[in-house]
Specification:
The complex is a heterodimer of chains A (478) and B (478). Chain A contains 15 helices and 16 strands. With 478 residues, chain A is α+β, with helices and mostly antiparallel strands. Chain A folds into 3 domains: 6-288, no CATH class; 298-408, no CATH class; 416-474, Arc Repressor Mutant, subunit A, CATH 1.10.10. Helices cover 38% and strands 20% of the residues of chain A. In chain A, the strands form 4 sheets. Chain A has a 9-stranded mixed β-sheet with strand order 2-6-7-10-1-11-12-13-14. Chain A has a 3-stranded antiparallel β-sheet with strand order 5-4-15, with no helix packed on it. In chain A, helix 2 (164-180) packs antiparallel against helix 3 and helix 13 runs antiparallel to helix 14 (443-455). Chain B has 478 residues and is α/β, with parallel strands linked by helices. Chain B has 16 helices and 11 strands. In chain B, strands 1-3-2-4-6-5-10-11-9-7-8 form an 11-stranded mixed β-sheet, with helices on both faces. In chain B, strand 7 (261-265), helix 9 and strand 8 form a beta-alpha-beta unit. In chain B, helix 5 packs parallel to helix 6 and helix 7 (221-231) packs antiparallel against helix 16. Classes of the chains: A alpha+beta (478), B alpha/beta (478). At the A-B interface, strand 15 of A face helix 10 and helix 13 of B.
Chain lengths: 478, 478
């Protein structure tokens, strides 16, 4: 019997915290990590009589996200109340958008390593308020309302994703766009980017949808991929054994790597959506949209193309740089100091990255310094070993690399006569190695080169040395 | 000094300016009147004699220093107990909030404080403003000052009774479907529901956000203009608040009245209204006609439809606005629970009175599943139609003349009849649904000594004209 092939159908709901100074409906600050309940007022605590006033910046950032994700921006939208009881929700409703979200029908393009492109639909983007945080302490549960009213956008993808890797690629691309446009900090560990996964499986080739489950609040890309893999296999196994997938909410257990049932969904949750009459409908005119379009910075895909054409760097490097707008900015600032941008990419990606692991990118070395370093390397004033050494010194302390090369005599030795003397000296000292090389042991060359570099205190130009060395070794009379 | 009780705000103001008596003396007169009448009337839930005398002293000091703040400086007033005053109880006449103290001022309360008005205390009401007789107060009984066996109307019954019993110069109430106008009619005082958005709702405990208006209760039309003039002005804390285009209400009171075009409504017919109320309506029409008005009878959507739309929308919004009273963050919490669901159920089950529970259940049901489209959304459409028809009508007529209530004050204990209650709002809901202003004008007494009243409804922002016309009726009655 032919075994049925299944495929997963995945849609993501991403919540991103907007980069505003104040909350979405009041003037409380939004800073992370403050003393519990120190950033609250009658409005975000939902005290009797308090009323929300919409933060205009939140609307602007949501529209910018919509523009960056090719959405249709709705000229007329409004807020609705999504109602449910939970202790972290002081009003017992969340002000969100239901029938009339700010943005609809967008897409994001995923570029495959192989040059392929896949479009992932964005069904909608809307603004809403965050809820508070419950802290379970022994038998008691405490409530921190600092997060209540923190502005969020919810970005709902179409069910266009087919596996975990694709979902992660989508998330990374989304994060890059949100970062580039200054819409969100996207710090998953602080909860400013959160992801819910909707997933179902179906027989490959089928156009219909299976019953889906929702996996809530996954807080790292790696876990998203693991959760999707586990859940896909779980659902397929269920179907293969004659079972059925139930509509339910699950969570991902980071320890076991499994998804665990939280609750079964009752005939689609009924949130009793109600028009939010405390807020006026949101009207955007052409002038508003034009202004927001102008505020929109260069998008990652555009920037990638520009970096390639403007600096002549390789595609892979350009893609790496634009994955973090701060990194691309850093590259461009450094590139102003050198005629060798591709070498600069190598210095950043291969060498500097070892010293800065934080996300988003933050360099311990000033952009100007690494630019000069690339220039010194490209002009062959120093060799790559010296460049690496200088870079690791720059990480610890700032100084002028050009002056250091000058004062400390770190310039590469490129005088052929001097190098020839050095090569001859070393060959005299290593007759065995010479013998080995000539009898076909190519590895002996590496040993000789190492000795030459050591003799030159690491300053010899390795390329010239190698040419001289091979010339000498291949001379019969030597 | 008890003749002071019969003076208008303007008269008090002149007397205070002329040092005929002090704000402290005036306040003491009202406190004495409260002491004398309150055991019978029961208009207050919270009395703050100490605070009132302190505020009066400050007012006197200001006036001595030549720094009096205007018309209301030193004038004693009271507030319906759903309007927040910092550090004062805010009960909404509910067991759930019996001991709740507001940490902030409602905008209208703040503006009165800043104007130097002297707060005497907080008035009784139907629990969470749901009712037409103040009998649904969980915290006290209020009687009609003209006949203690009758209700004062509701839900702002305490406010109307306080003004009618001269326990307060003026009071603010809230009007969702007639809750200021109907008790004003029952108690024989003026009750103005302004254009939606003209008075800030910030700090006024919400019943139905899209309908709620703060209203003014006074003994004369001019007093009403004086209080309104002090309160208008856009409030940045209420997104639905608007600037009034013609805020000089006292000036409007002195303006000559041009020939008015007045509409009476055919569907509010003789058989739906008590005979004495009908007679008052005819007399009012006669007075207006004598003053040169053209009076024509027009069609409006039948009361049944308006009432149905109103009750669905008001209940749906109320079910949402009252969801926050869950015992978690503030207010009463049932001691009797072993789970979160029980905490919610027992707190709300024991905390709310039957009428509030009935409306919450009804409103919740109107938003659930298919009901949402069948009832809630449809009611929104009917409302939109009424709004348009009213606008159209008011473009042809300056005023609509109707009774305020189809009956005079009814006997206490008889309001259980739901049908009677539903009809009670028949004349008042149009202005609420359309968001236009309406004022209840006292119009003498019937043979049992109970107050009669008529209602004037005008186009948006026509409060000046409404009050000017009310003054005309007032003068004609003598």
């Amino acid at each position: 019997m032919k075994e049925t092939q299944y495929e997963a159908v995945i849609g993501l709901e991403v919540h991103a915290e907007l980069k505003t100074e104040t909350k979405i409906f009041c003037a409380c600050p939004t800073g992370f990590g403050a003393e519990p309940n120190s950033q609250c007022c009658p409005v975000c605590l939902g005290l009797p009589g308090a009323l929300p006033v919409l933060n205009r910046r939140a609307v602007e950032l949501c529209v910018m996200a919509g523009l960056a994700l090719n959405c249709e921006i709705q000229r007329n939208s409004r807020n609705d109340r999504k109602q449910y009881f939970y202790p972290d929700l002081p009003k017992a409703y969340q002000i969100s958008q239901d029938g009339y979200p700010l943005c609809r029908n967008g897409y994001l393009t995923l570029d495959g390593e192989d040059g392929s492109h896949k479009r992932i639909g964005i069904a909608r983007i809307h603004i809403e308020e965050d809820a508070g945080k419950l802290i379970h302490a022994g038998k008691e549960t405490l409530i921190d309302c600092n997060r209540c009213g923190v502005p969020l956008i919810e970005i709902v993808s179409a069910p266009d994703l087919r596996n975990g890797a694709e979902a992660v690629a989508y998330l990374k691309s989304l994060r890059t766009i949100l970062l580039s446009c200054g819409i969100s900090d996207c710090r998953m560990q602080e909860g400013s980017l959160r992801c819910d996964v909707n997933i179902s499986v179906r027989e490959a080739g089928n156009r219909g949808f299976g019953v889906r489950t929702e996996i809530k609040n996954i807080n790292s890309f790696a876990f998203v991929e693991k959760a999707i893999r586990y859940e896909t296999e779980r659902q397929i196994a269920l179907l293969q054994n004659g079972g059925e997938v139930c509509s339910e909410t699950r969570r991902f257990d980071e320890v076991t790597g499994e998804t665990v049932l939280m609750r079964v969904k009752e005939s689609a949750d009924d949130y009793r959506y109600l028009t939010e009459a405390d807020l006026m409908p949101i009207h955007l005119n052409e002038e508003d949209l034009r202004r927001l379009c102008e505020m929109l910075p260069e998008l990652p895909a555009e920037r990638q193309m520009r970096l390639i054409s403007q600096y002549g760097i390789e595609d892979a490097g350009a893609r790496m740089l634009v994955s973090d707008p701060g990194l691309a900015d850093y590259f461009e600032a450094a590139a102003a100091k050198t005629n060798y941008p591709q070498l600069l990419v190598h210095l950043i990606v291969n060498d500097l990255f070892r010293f800065c692991t934080s996300e988003p990118f933050c360099s311990p070395v000033a952009s100007e310094r690494i630019g000069v370093l690339a220039e010194l390397l490209g002009s062959r004033t120093v060799n790559s070993a010296t460049a690496k050494k200088l870079l690791s010194r720059l990480v610890k302390q700032d100084f002028s690399p050009a002056e250091a090369v000058e004062c400390e005599g770190l310039a590469q030795i490129r005088d052929e006569q001097k190098l020839l003397e050095m090569v001859e000296f070393v060959l005299d000292e290593m007759p065995q190695a010479v013998e080995d090389y000539r009898s076909g042991k190519r590895a002996a060359l590496r040993a000789i080169q190492g000795r030459i570099m050591a003799t030159s205190k690491g300053l010899a130009d390795p390329e010239i040395c190698e040419a001289l060395l091979i010339k000498l070794l291949n001379r019969e009379d030597f | 000094m008890s003749d002071l009780l019969n003076r208008t705000i303007l008269a008090h103001h002149s007397a205070l300016e002329a040092r005929e008596y002090s704000a402290v003396e005036l306040t003491q007169v009202y406190l004495d009147q409260i002491a004398m009448r309150e055991s019978e009337v029961g208009a207050f839930l919270t009395l703050d004699a100490e605070g009132a005398l302190r505020a009066a002293e400050e007012s006197d000091r200001r006036r001595l220093a030549g720094k009096a703040r205007g018309m209301l400086d030193g004038i004693p007033f009271s507030l319906k107990d759903n309007i927040a005053v910092k550090d004062m109880r805010l009960t909404c006449a509910s067991r759930l909030l019996r001991d709740y103290v507001s940490p902030y001022d409602a905008t209208v309360a703040l503006r009165l404080k800043q104007a130097g008005a002297v707060l005497l205390g907080k008035n009784n009401m139907d629990e969470f403003a749901m009712g037409s007789s103040t009998e649904y107060s969980a915290l006290g009984v209020t009687r009609n000052p003209w006949d203690p066996s009758c209700v004062p109307g509701g839900s702002s019954g305490g406010s109307a009774a306080a003004v009618a019993a001269k326990e307060s110069v003026f009071s603010l109430g809230s009007d969702t479907g007639g809750s200021v106008r109907q008790p004003a009619a029952f108690c024989g005082v003026y009750g103005l529901k302004p254009t939606y958005g003209v008075l800030s709702r910030y700090g006024v405990v919400a019943m139905a956000s899209s309908l709620d208006c703060v209203g003014v209760l006074t003994e004369t039309a001019q007093d009403c203009a004086a209080v309104l003039e002090c309160l208008v002005g856009k409030d940045l804390c209420d997104a639905t608040s608007v600037e009034h285009p013609q805020p000089d209400f006292l000036k409007a009171m002195r303006a000559p009245l041009r020939a008015l075009r007045v509409a009476t409504v055919s569907s509010i017919s003789e058989e739906l209204v008590d005979a004495d109320v009908w007679q008052a309506l005819q007399s009012a029409a006669e007075i207006l006609r004598d003053a040169g008005a053209v009076i024509e009878t027009v069609e409006l959507p039948v009361p049944k439809q308006a009432l149905a739309a109103y009750s669905v929308l008001a209940a749906a919004e109320a079910s949402s606005n009252l969801a926050r009273y869950d015992g978690v963050h503030y207010g009463m919490r049932s001691e009797d629970y072993t789970s979160l669901a029980e905490l919610y159920a027992n707190t709300r089950g024991k905390g709310f009175g039957d009428e509030v529970k009935r409306r919450i259940l009804f409103g919740t049901d109107m938003l659930l599943g298919e009901n949402r489209a069948r009832f809630y959304v449809r009611a929104q459409h009917i409302r939109e139609r009424i709004r348009c028809e009213m606008k159209e009508l008011l473009s042809k007529y300056d005023l609509i003349l109707t009774p305020t209530s189809p009956t005079v004050a009814f006997a206490r204990g008889s309001s259980a009849s739901q049908e009677r209650l539903a009809c009670a709002d028949m004349c008042t809901v149009y202005a609420s649904l359309a968001g236009v202003p309406a004022v209840s004008v006292p119009f003498g007494k019937n043979e049992n000594g109970l107050p009669l009243a008529v209602q004037l409804t005008g186009r948006a922002f026509s409060e000046g004209l409404l009050l000017r016309t009310a003054k005309l009726l007032e003068e004609a009655l003598g």
